[in-house]
Amino acid sequence: FGHAKGAFTGAVRAHEGLFRAAHGGTLFLDEIGEIPLALQVKLLRALQEKSIRPVGAEVEYEVDVRILAATNKDLDVEVAAERFRSDLFYRLNVIHIRLPPLRERREDIPLLVEENLARAARELRKPVRAVSEEAMNWLLAYDYPGNVRELMNLIDRAVTLASGSEITRAELPAEGARAGASLGNLADLPLDRALDQL
């Protein structure tokens, strides 16, 4: 919602906020199911009144914003448990689009691998440009309980461990092991064995 200059300690200049910045366009609210009830009330008011008042401001600003919201929670369950306001849910739930988990759309995996491989190689400054056939077969068969974020983590891990220009099966977790689980198990081992595994 933004704030006025001097609205609180450290507010050395005014900040217009995301609603005003998105005026005439689209505002994406990720993980909408995580926002606290007090903020849900303010968000509902902004959507109903089509105006916002920055913290410390004496005036309201009209905002014309299309809202896209995403969540990994079942908001019907959250509403029933009174953790998500039903009036906000119905205001947001005009068109519901269900994006299936990655394990239900395996045809997307090669494209996501390619995109994230390029990103990870660039960020980590490594010359990794390809994925071996065996590694790709493993990536296609894996169930991804952590969805796309887990795939990104696997690619980051594999690029970090890769010694050449290609990700091989050796840079991927053991069969059935989740990408982060193997590191968690290291805490239970003596230091020399943990370092050998790592």
Description:
- This protein has 198 residues and is mostly helical.
- Helices cover 42% and strands 8% of the residues.
- It contains nine helices and six strands.
Layout of helices and strands:
Blueprint: H1 17-21, E1 26-29, H2 37-49, E2 51-52, E3 61-62, E4 66-69, H3 75-80, H4 86-92, H5 109-124, E5 130-131, H6 133-141, H7 147-161, E6 166-167, H8 181-185, H9 191-197
Parallel strand pairs: 1-4, 5-6
Antiparallel strand pairs: 2-3
Helix pairs in contact: 5-7
Query: Number of helical runs?
Result: 9
What structural category characterises the helix and strand content?
mainly alpha
What's the Cα radius of gyration?
23 Å
User: H/E element string?
Assistant: HEHEEEHHHEHHEHH
Helix fraction?
40-55%
Biggest sheet, strands in spatial order?
Answer: 1-4
* Range of strand content: 5-15%
For the sheet with most strands, the description reads: 2 strands, parallel
What is the count of β-strands? 6
Descriptors:
single chain, 198 residues, mainly alpha, two-stranded parallel sheet
Brief overview:
The protein has 198 residues and is mainly alpha-helical.
